Amino acid sequence: MKLLSWRLAGIGALLIAAGGMAHAEEVNATFVAPVFKLGNNTIGTGQVSENADGSFTMSGNDGSQDRGWVLGWNLNVDYDPFINGTLSLTNFTASDHDYTLVLDLPVPAFGPSSVYGGSLTATVFDDNGNSSAVLKHSAGSLSIYQGTIDEIGVLNLFPDISCGGSGPNCSVTFTDQAGLPGPTIPGPGVNGHIGTILKFNLSAGDRVVFNTNFTVNPVSAVPLPASVWMLIAALGCMSYFFGANSRMRSVIHPHHG
Fold this sequence. Notes:
disordered N terminus; 1 helix; 51% strand; globular; 9-stranded antiparallel β-sheet
């Protein structure tokens, strides 16, 4: 299980690497808050602190029992195109409920291609003690987890999970991933955003804790090794030699009509 941490790129604080490389270097990190929403509720950043490596930590909680939900988070943000964090949500309503949790990260554009990978670990808890807890995809959604590049879904993960039959306060944990370690899945270039969307239904009175990760890396042109260039040069010389030799034989033994 990976600990939750957000890596976020501030576009105005990037330095494009010399020589036309696709990677960007981090300089004088400037905090840029991600778009963070639960349904129609915009979630604040909470407490933000700067770390020695130029990243930021944001943590907090929102909601209340009267509002029917409480969301907690502990996120780190940095310039790499990377999302990795812990989110906890409790459903205080008297029935199961659909939720959509959006994390959208501004990043510098890169391309023309990328590689990506992601994972989700979820633990659902029977907090109301009725011996059952259920986490499933919400109505109209194909999966609980979706990784996005420029707001277009590119990765879908995670089946429905539940616990029951073992008495009150049961819990169950499951992990799903693709393209990791790596990342290894070929993808498009990035114009300015990567993100995750969690669309799920949680049983009444119960709680879920997500550990979520989505990583997107640029793909740079790989220079050919010197040995390959030497082989190409040798083949070229051989081609020239055999061509010249053939032309010499034609001069020495001309064809007569």
